[in-house]
Amino acid sequence: MFLAAAICVVFSGFLVMRPLLFGQKDAQGFVRITPEQVKWVTDTDGSGVQRATIDGDPSKPGTYVIRVKFPPGMMSRPHYHREDRHVVVLQGTWWSGTGDEFAPDKTIPMKPGSYMKHPAGARHFDGAKDEEVIVQITGNGPTDTVRLHPELSNYGPSTKK
Asked: Does the pTM of the predicted model rise above 0.90?
């Protein structure tokens, strides 16, 4: 549910109150979204990974901002994107690896507040180990994800069972 605030507008000498919904652009183009307003969508592959579009549209030209929530023990398999992507860790320890081989034991931990640039075409894999992780990704669309091993699922276990 969106939270409402009030904006005072002087129109023809009258003070007018009109509602402003958070999560929508105001008259000046500002967008405000609280964590409670983020609309998560669960991937349909059974991995438990969730995504949310914060701003823009990753499938169209222009800047986009998305969030990805990894459940504990889940990591993306090696892939790349055609554009540079900028990642900031918001919650949990995010584990990131590079290269063609899916090797969760060779990933580097990045705590909240950490930043990583994924250069266009650079092969990588990433996700969560012991705790839920949320990252925020910014890029310029349209984007795509090219899987190195499309015969495998998009995600794999990050810890040995």
From this structure: no
